[in-house]
What we know:
Layout (H helix, E strand, L loop, with lengths): L7 E2 L3 E5 L5 H10 L16 H16 L3 E6 L5 E12 L2 E10 L8 H15 L5 E6 L4 H9 L3 E8 L2 E9 L1
Amino acid sequence: MNEYLTSQETQRLIIRPLNDGDVNSWEAFLSDGSPFRYYPKTMTIDKNTAKDWVDRQIRRYEKDGFGLMALECKETGQLVGQCGLIRQQVDGKDELEIGYHIIEEYRTKGYASEAAQYFKQFAFEQLEVKSVISIIHPDNVASQMVASRNGMIKEKTTIWNEMKSFVYRAIR
């Protein structure tokens, strides 16, 4: 059994695979609109986007054995966001990214940092990778702070998905 896809816990979070039951909650993230300042202009947001997003993660689970996972607050049971490991191509090189997205009302509570630290440790200890990255839009200061708190250092600036992006890296 793939340990990544079993429910795990951190101090305040339950980390579990996304499922179709998460679509309505994820619409809150998408309808907020603010995260899309940091996404490629080619990304279309409509009523099917939340379902497509969750389905893409489920396909990643099947293909790669990992992807973005649901983050639930232990105390309330509410979906607060997503975080996980994603295969990415950056400048022609295969990379393992720690990606994270937090629903607006739960931002600035440390959930992204808590989850990102969990996934860095998982990648290093269970997958035995040598490094992990986070791809961050230059204007997304909050995500840059999460990466820094996760022991990552800004390695370079690149064009990724047609957008200027910073690549932060942590090395085992």
